[in-house]
Amino acid sequence: MDQEKMDRRIAKTRIAIKNVFTELIDEIGFDAVTVKNITDKANINRSTFYLHYRDKYDLLEKSEEEIIQKIEEISKSIRRLTPKELNNLYSDNKPFPFVIKLAEYFRDNAAFLKVILGPKGDLSFQEKIKTILEKNIVENVRAIFGEGTFHVPIDVFMAYIISAHVGSILHWLNTGMKQSPEEIATIIFNLTFQGPVNAIGFKKFQ
Amino acid sequence: MDQEKMDRRIAKTRIAIKNVFTELIDEIGFDAVTVKNITDKANINRSTFYLHYRDKYDLLEKSEEEIIQKIEEISKSIRRLTPKELNNLYSDNKPFPFVIKLAEYFRDNAAFLKVILGPKGDLSFQEKIKTILEKNIVENVRAIFGEGTFHVPIDVFMAYIISAHVGSILHWLNTGMKQSPEEIATIIFNLTFQGPVNAIGFKKFQ
DNA sequence: AGATTAATAAACACAGTGTTAATTATTTTG
DNA sequence: CAAAATAATTAACACTGTGTTTATTAATCT
Fold it and tell me: Which among A46, A149, B89, B197 could disulfide-bond with A39, CB atoms 3.0 to 4.6 Å apart, if both were Cys?
């Protein structure tokens, strides 16, 4: 929180621990990481670790909590769209601002996010991200469709697009972020609004 | 493999281990599971465990391997569709046979799959499932579109629909499988071909 | 410069690991 | 069914990591 008033030794130690932690998860996977691993690699005494974190799960939780809070801030900072505004986005082929901001945040924190969301990371973290996304999308869906009936079960629809969004951004992150945040957001927007099969250029045969 | 010729004691022990293993992952998460946990709960001697598996990772690997092989069999057993056949599916609103079969297999093995693909499970397993799906879809895409240019990057398209498919089926599994395998496959098919936003019934405002 | 606080070092009992060897129990087979 | 084969058990082993404590050293803040 208040990184300003923090004793330099504390700040230094925590940064060292977190950096080494990220590296180790990447190298051997979270559950293989030991406290001893961390302190050896960070060149600090094992007791020092316990002055800051209860155990490796506490460290994981606190590292994730920082990210979650930031993403929730981003989500809250963006005003809900009116049906009219959404319509304009659709006409102008402009992606949701939230998805752009999300991609930007992922880009700026790629090191930790790649690892923690990767195959050696923490599956429950993906769920937490999805929950934030869900909150965000639910509100937009309500605003646009009201409580009317849908052609497909709304819960499956939600699961579909949330998984698709997270999966796409993660793919983008893991393949070197070849597009800008705006570009990847636009691609995802098109896949969602035109539908993947139309977006890619499928024409019905006759 | 040859469960026929297996000594009854071996079969009994391995089934006991695998059942308890699934329960424990569900209860405390894979990385918290210890060999001692497993053998205590299964009421077998700890040494017995080591007669069958090298460690808990070996057990995980072998449990996953069975599933992967079955899903790969399913994938291979289904003939590739011709563009004409795909067109017919599209016209008749009939889902891909592979997706139906996949949903059926998930339904029939829900206990282990729910746990291993859940937040306390193994993230790398989801990747393995996605890899099989990718192989399957790539062939269909090639058959239909050839090597032509696409309106969106093909890799993002793939990541999008694969994540969407896995995410939807997992959601279906975790919420009590309210639809039949055919139904959920049809829903996913519609979301993919019409696009999520159209499928749900969105009409452009004017 | 002195007071404060963080980091270190060394020791502790404790959990679980993976292996071994001898013994007991069950299953297979001839 | 009895003998042979093999699986499971028991108990012991050294080893690695955990989480905590206490005294000492070192860095920082005021």
Answer: A46
| B159/A150 CB distance under 8 A | no
A18 within some domain = yes
Is residue A89 predicted with pLDDT exceeding 90? no
Nucleotides of D under 7 A from a protein CB: 6-12, 16-22, 27-29
Q: Within this chain, do residues B148 and B106 fall inside the same structural domain, yes or no?
A: yes
HEC secondary structure over B106-158: HHHCHHHHHHHHCCCCCHHHHHHHHHHHHHHHHHHHHHHHCCCCCCCCHHHHH
Contacts of A167 in chain B (CB under 8 A): 159-160, 162-164, 166-167
Residues B82 and B47 in one domain: no
* Amino acid identity, position A56: K
Measured distance CA(A134)–CA(B171) in Å, rounded: 13
Same domain, B168 and B79: yes
Q: Domain span at residue B36?
A: 8-53
Digit-coded pLDDT (tens) for A27-41: 999 999 999 999 999
Cα angle at A39 between A36 and A41, to 5 degrees?
Answer: 105
Considering the domain architecture, whether residues B29 and B100 belong to the same structural domain is answered as no
pLDDT tens figures, A118-142: 999 998 999 999 999 999 888 888 7
- Co-location of A113 and A76 in the same domain: yes
The CATH code of the domain that includes B22 is 1.10.10.60
Answer yes or no: is pLDDT of A205 > 60.
no
With respect to residue B162, please indicate whether it lies within any of the assigned structural domains. yes
Three-state DSSP state, A75: helix
Residues of B within 8 A of A195 (CB-CB) are: 191-199
Can you list the alpha helix ranges (DSSP code H) found in B29-122? 35-42, 46-52, 56-77, 83-92, 97-108, 110-117
Q: What is the spatial distance, in angstroms and rounded to an integer, between the CA atom of B19 and the C1' atom of D4?
A: 32
- CA→C1' distance for B42 and C24 (Å): 20
In this structure, the answer to whether residues B44 and B92 fall within a common structural domain is no
Q: Return the sign of the alpha-carbon dihedral for residues B38, B44, B45, B47.
A: negative
Count of the separate structural domains present in chain A: 2
Neighbours of B10 (CB within 10 A): 12
For residue B2, pLDDT over 60 is answered with: no
Say whether both B99 and B154 belong to one domain: yes
Same domain, B103 and B175: yes
pLDDT of residue B86: 81
